[in-house]
Amino acid sequence: MWHALGLIGIALMRQQVPESKLLNWAGCLMFAGILLFSGSLYLLALLNLHWLGMITPLGGVSFITAWVLIAIFAAKKPHQSRYTHARR
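Now predict its structure.
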């Protein structure tokens, strides 16, 4: 559930900064993580194919990488104060 909210957050941030490659990669990795992690677990539970368990960590790595990219984006974004124009 948190990753779906993260994907929504990425979409909202992309509206503000559509040219951000970090957010583009974060969104793709978050979506891939949802498919790989959750999808492999659902299929493992339904079909009992044990080799699907080897795919699950790839989804976890995708999630972690996406969250790291979001953190890097937040750290790199210049802080805009609403009081900068009043100090002239």
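The chain has a mean pLDDT of 88.
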